[in-house]
Amino acid sequence: MAGSRASSLVVVAVVLVIVIVMVAAASVSAERYPPLAPGLSFDFYKKSCPKAESIVKDFLSSAVKQNPGLIPALIRIHFHDCFVQGCDGSVLLDNSSISGTSEKTYIPNQTLRPAAFKAINDIRNALEKACGRVVSCADIAALTARDSVQLAGGPSYKVPLGRRDGLSPASETAVLTGLPAPTSNVTELMDALSKIKLDITDLVALSGGHTVGIAHCNSFDNRLFPARDPTMDQWFFTQLNKICPLPNTDKTTVNDIRTPHVFDNKYYVDLLNRQGLFTSDQVLNVDARTKDIVHKFAVDQNAFFDQFVYSYVKMGQIQVLTGSQGQIRANCAARNPPRLAWSIVDTLLLGL
Ligand code: HEM
Ligand SMILES: *[C@@H]1O[C@H](CO)[C@@H](O)[C@H](O)[C@H]1NC(C)=O
Ligand SMILES: *[C@@H]1O[C@H](CO)[C@@H](O)[C@H](O)[C@H]1NC(C)=O
Ligand SMILES: CC(=O)N[C@H]1CO[C@H](CO)[C@@H](O)[C@@H]1O
């Protein structure tokens, strides 16, 4: 009796030691970051707003309890911001108080969720209360994307900060050429990515963002009508056809059929099983240039997490405004009103 108790204690102790060693190994695993863009740093707000990151995280942790859909929405907003005219918060602008039309008007942006724009602005207000107007909306978009990845079970990582907010939205052409369509093949995807210095490994890793979130029928029904895309699994086709019986049905389905709400590597397992949702997803397991990377991420989640962090941080530094460029917005949805002094200078200069 006493002997078996002692031996079970030994077992418990051994298991504990193993767990401690594993946790320690995980926490010392070196994170890999791309070179930082000039003007950005990991501790940008250390003096001016030391609590910035915890304010963002605390706000978001409680907001996602009310609305878990914020997670995929915020992961996608940072991507749309960065792919079009750089990570300058221009995707956040509304029609009002800008000259021109908001990026949100154009087709790829029509499915960005309004609640996520509101969360970014609410966080901005909380940050201004704590520190004054020092944290940019573009940085908030990067931080909320990072925290969303982690809240969904993905990797945690550091975000380079110091982005400034842009003054104007991108044009319709810039939005449509910057954001590839879900019907794209690898050549078309790489045409868009190479313009912003992202490579084929970045393409495969960043597409892993589709491990969470939803899509509307018209984003993938090119693969259902007039007939099943032959690269799509028959069972998966039947399921999707029930949701979208006709072209353009106004319904949604999950991007990752295995674990739709968890940030993990199952998206790549979907691809191996011919159950990727968009053409732009499934082609990654067909094209010879990307197939091996898909396979590697499907069998090794750590390899995916490592590369996702590297590529997402790289993406987060595309064409950033820094230093005295741009501005720090007082409202993420609007450019600051011009200051009186400057409008007088403008008038004088125009008068010359
Ligand atoms: C590589 C090219 C990409 C294409 C063609 C693409 C296309 C799309 C499309 C069409 C949707 C669904 C829109 C709808 O029907 O509602 C979507 C959703 C989504 N995308 Fe992408 N995407 C790409 C890259 C990315 C990247 C780089 C990320 C982030 C790392 C990302 C994250 C997401 C997320 C999280 C959703 C779900 C949004 C939600 O549930 O609100 N995508 N994407
Ligand atoms: C923004 O304004 C344009 C016209 O300039 C209009 O077509 C568009 O629907 C508006 N978009 C939003 C999101 O209100
Ligand atoms: C990709 O699509 C383009 C047309 O949009 C086509 O010319 C090209 O052959 C396709 N490439 C591959 C690798 O399928
Ligand atoms: C989030 C957002 O602003 N979405 C807009 C996309 O564009 C349509 C009009 O084209 C608006 O109705 C949506 O509000």
TrEMBL record:
* CDD domains xrefs: secretory_peroxidase
Q: Which GO terms describe its biological process?
A: hydrogen peroxide catabolic process; response to oxidative stress
Chief location category: secreted
Q: Which Gene3D superfamilies match?
A: 1.10.520.10, Peroxidase, domain 2
Q: Which UniProt keywords apply?
A: Calcium, Disulfide bond, Glycoprotein, Heme, Hydrogen peroxide, Iron, Metal-binding, Oxidoreductase, Peroxidase, Secreted, Signal
**Chain positions recorded as Ca(2+) 1 binding sites:** 81, 84, 86, 88, 90, 103
Q: Where is this site: Transition state stabilizer?
A: 76
Q: List the disulfide bonds.
A: 49-131, 82-87, 137-332, 217-244
* EC number(s) per entry: 1.11.1.7
Instruction: Tell me which residues bind Ca(2+) 2.
Output: 211, 256, 259, 264
Q: Which residues of this UniProt protein bind substrate?
A: 180
Q: What is this protein called?
A: Peroxidase
Organism, scientific name: Eleusine coracana subsp. coracana
Please state the gene responsible for encoding this protein: gb03658
